[in-house]
Design a protein that fits this description.
The protein has 122 residues and is of the alpha+beta class. The protein contains 2 helices and 8 strands; from the N terminus they run αββββαββββ. The radius of gyration is 15 Å and the shape is globular.
């Protein structure tokens, strides 16, 4: 039975669910659970559009998950944060979605999603 479950995970990849961040549905890996605590300083323009998650997902899984799922929903990758290994950015319809993920000492990974206007207020 365990082999069948492992095979299913390998074949289907990282399963997803959606979370509403600033009124925008963003895919979230199913292993990640939303946490109430604010775990990052809010970026100007993103005050109302931040959600934090924590779970057992490897960094490579998260990277691949967002590359596949965001583009499938019409989000375009942007070079906004290209210099950062664990940060991704996508744009769609006047919005930008920032994805940050970092490993934790306990073996879990923290994931922060921010959604805001693609052109921050002046």
């Amino acid at each position: 039975m365990a082999f069948v479950c492992l095979l299913l995970v390998l074949v289907t990849g990282c399963q997803k669910k959606d979370a509403s961040v600033a009124g925008v549905d963003i895919p979230i890996p199913s292993q990640m659970k939303q946490v109430a605590d604010k775990v990052a300083e809010t970026v100007p323009g993103f005050e109302d559009g931040q959600a934090a998650f924590r779970g057992k997902a490897a960094e490579g899984e998260i990277f691949n998950f967002y590359q596949e799922n965001m583009e499938a929903r019409g989000w375009k990758p942007t070079s906004f944060m290209v210099s950062k290994k664990n940060q991704l950015a996508f744009t769609k319809g006047g919005k930008i979605c920032l994805v940050w993920y970092t490993p934790n000492p306990d073996g879990t990974t923290s994931l922060i999603i921010m959604v805001g206007p693609s052109k921050p207020p002046q």
